[in-house]
Here is the input.
Amino acid sequence: MRIYNSLTRQIEEFVPIKPPAVGMYACGPTVYSYVHIGNFRTYTTADVLVRLLKANGYEVSYVMNITDVGHLTGDNLGDADTGEDRMEKAASKAGKTAWEIADFYTRQFLMDFDRLNLLRPREFCRATDHIPEQIALIQRLEANGFTYKTSDGIYFDTAKFPRYGEMSTLTQIQEGARVEVNREKRNPRDFALWKFSPTDAKRQMEWDSPWGVGFPGWHIECSAMSMKYLGESFDIHAGGEDLRSTHHPNEIAQAEAATRKQFVKYWVHSAFLLVDGGRMSKSLGNNYTLSDLVQKGFSPMALRYLYFMGHYRGQINFTWSGLASAQTAYDKLVEFVRQARSKGDSARVALSAEKMKKADDYRKRFAAAMNEDLGTPQALAIVWETLKSNIPDYDKLDLLLDWDQILGLRLSEAGAGITVPEEVRSLAGEREKLRLGGKFVEADSVRMQLEKMGWEVRDTVGGPQLKPKIQDSGFKIQDSK
Ligand code: AMP
Ligand code: ZN
Here is the structure.
C-alpha cells in the first residue's frame, strides 16, 4: 500500500519498521468542550487507515492521547505558550473543576467515537496520567543541552536542532500575529516544555518538578506518551493539517533531540472539514457535534459516508444538503444489504466464469483504490458500480460486507429485524457483569460460548451490543502492485 508522507512530501510505499507490527499514534482531542465533526473527520481518517492496515495483514498497535492540561488559548494566534489554559478557563466559566470538565468532555467524546464506529485504540492516554514521563523526557533534553530557562518556564532551543520544522508548511512562525511577544525567548519558534504556575494564583492542575511547580507545555505529552507505548521509533503519526506546522515539528524536535533516533517514519495529515465554506467556530454557532446531526434525524454513519466522499488530503465542505445526500446514499446501501440478506443462502448460485472475473475485478479495484493513499471517493464509486452490475446479489453482498471491514459503515448490522434470543441476551448480560467486576477471563469464556452460538458481542459505552456472527471470508486485501 502507498500513503502520502508529509515528511518527504510525496506518496510512498508503506514499509513498516518491523513488519507485521505497525505502531500508530494519532493526536486526540483537547477535552475542554465538545469534540466537533471537524475533529471527527481527522479521527475517521485515522480509523480507516488502521482498518486498511489490518486488512493488509499488519498487526496494528494504535494509540491516541487525550489532552487534559496545558493547551493554552494563545495557539489560535500563533503562540501556544501564551494565554490561559483551556481546561482551567472552561472550568471557571462553568463553575466546575478542571478535572470535572475533562471527565465530562472525555465521556462525550468516547460516546461519539463509538457512535461513529471508530475502532478503539489499544490505549487512550491522558496527559495528566503521564506527568512523570513528561518530566523525564524534559530532563533528557536538558541533559542533552536543548533547553533554557526563562521567568515563566523551561523552553526548547530550536536553534540547537538544525532540522527543526522540516515538515512545516510555514517558513517562519509570524511573530507579528502573536498576542504578546515573549521577549525572553531566544527564538520565536522556541516553545515551552514546562510552564511555571503563576506566583499570584493557584492553578487547579499543577505538579512539582525539578524546575518548580507548574504544568507541561502542550507538545511534550505526545512525544512522551507515544514513545512510552510505541517505542522511540515507530511507523505512523496522524493528526489534522493544522498540526503539521507547529505541534508535530515540536514533537519531532523533542523526541529526536532526546533519543537521537528518527521518531516517526510516516506523518499523515488529514485536511480540515469546513462548514458552509468557512472555518468552524463557536462564535458563528457552526461547530456542529455529532449529536446536532443526530437530533436532526441523520445517522452517524451518514456522516462517515460524507467524509469518504472526499479524499482525506483535500478540504471538504459540510452542508446540510450534502449530509442529506450522504444519508440517501447510505440508506440505499443498507436497503440493498437488507434485501440481499432476506433472500437467504438459497439465492446463492454458481457464478459463470465471466461474472466471477467481474467480481474479482471489483475486488481488486477496490483494494487498489484504498491502497493508493486511502482513495475513498474512488472506492465508493466502485461500490456503486458493483451494485449496479449484473453479478448476483449474493456476490455483491459478499463484496460489500468485506469492504465494510475497511469502510466501517456498519453494513453487516443492516440485517433489520434481527431478534436476539432470550438466552443469548441473558448470557451477554452475565458477561457484562463479569467484565465490570474485573473478571476478564470468565467474561472471555462467556464471549466464546456466545460465539459458538453464532453471536458476536461488542462492548460500547451504551452496554454490550449483539450481532449475528458472519462467517469469516478470510478477506485479505491484495496489494495493488
Ligand atoms: P484539538 O482538540 O483542537 O487539539 O483538535 C483535535 C484534532 O482535530 C487535531 O488533530 C486537529 O488537527 C483536528 N481538527 C481540528 N479542527 C478540525 C477541522 N475543522 N477539520 C478536521 N480536523 C480538525
Ligand atoms: Zn499531538
Summary: The first strand starts at residue 2 and ends at 5. Residues 320-413 form a domain with the Four Helix Bundle (Hemerythrin (Met), subunit A) fold (CATH 1.20.120). Residues 320-342 form the longest helix (23 residues).
